[in-house]
Structures are given as structure tokens and as C-alpha cells.
What does this fold into?
Amino acid sequence: MRTQLIQELKEYKPYNEQEQRDQKIILKMLEKEDIFTRDNQIAHITSSAWVTNKTRDKVLMAYHNIYDSWAWLGGHNDGIENCLEVAMKEVSEESGVVAKPISEQIFSIEILTVDGHVKKGKYVSSHLHLNITYLLEADESAILTKKEDENSAVAWFGLEEAIEKSSEKWFRENVYSKLNEKLKEAC
It folds into this structure.
């Protein structure tokens, strides 16, 4: 699987300069480090999903407790090397929704900074998430459920509204805006 992700990343065409630079770093880390678990406390692979409805005019977000913000869905790979599988699992766990890939190809890549925080009573030092994002589709009429230990709400938002709902400036300007641009181009 590691070789599969390396191949997928090598074939991935970066959307902008941020993705070009992040692609090189993630590939370098994949070739030299064990980065599929949180045992690597400096940087590890995470998988996220930009979940859209059938008409591609809404996205699904959760209000994440740690970040105190509306955000996309996703999480740590915790040893699983199939990033698409992890993204789909995280969507289901965090929202109760079953989402299917619009494409099995990587939709976006990002290296994300995570500030130090307390999780389950233990301090987690600042580190990097080497994030692989997929574009998924879900039924917006499906019943939404929150994951009590991670989020306090789950909701569908219009594309621009989703950006406005996030309180994380860097994500609004550099991640969610990019994902929406790419979504519009894909339609």
C-alpha cells in the first residue's frame, strides 16, 4: 500500500504552488519515515474528505471540538495505508453518513500544522498532518449524527457558506477555498 500511495502521489498533478511543495515533502517523508501512525510525533499521514451532495452545491462539515471550528471530515490513518478507506471511515464515524468516492484519485494534498492541545486528558505536542484529501459524495437527506468525543454538530452548508463557517483563517483561505475551486472545475 505504501508503494501504491507513493505512486498515486507521483502521478498527482499539483493544483498550485502549495501542493507542488507539499507533494515533494510528503513523498520524501513516505520514502524515509514510518508516517502512518501517531508514533511519529513530528509528522504523520491523515486522510480527509470534501463531502459534497449530488448536485455539488453543498458540503458536509462537522463542528470539531478541539479546533472550536466548523471543518471538513477526516482523521489519522492509525496504521492503515489506504487513505481513501480512512477518509470514508472517518466520514461515517464523524457524521453517520455513508459517502462514496466521486473518484478514487487524490483530490487535494496539504501539510497542515496542528498546535499542541489536550486530547483525552493527555497533552499532544504540536506536529504536522501530511494530509491526503478525497472528493466524496453523500446523500444530503441522510440522518446526521455527531461523534460526541470529537464534534458537537454536523451540517450541510452551501459552498461559500462552508468557508464562512470556519473560524480558522488559514483553512478558509488556503484549503476550503481551494477545494471549492477544484469542485467547481470538476463539475
User: Anything to note?
Assistant: The longest strand covers residues 127-137. The CA atoms of residues 49 and 134 lie 5 Å apart. The domain at 2-186 is CATH 3.90.79.10 (Nucleoside Triphosphate Pyrophosphohydrolase). The mean pLDDT is 95.
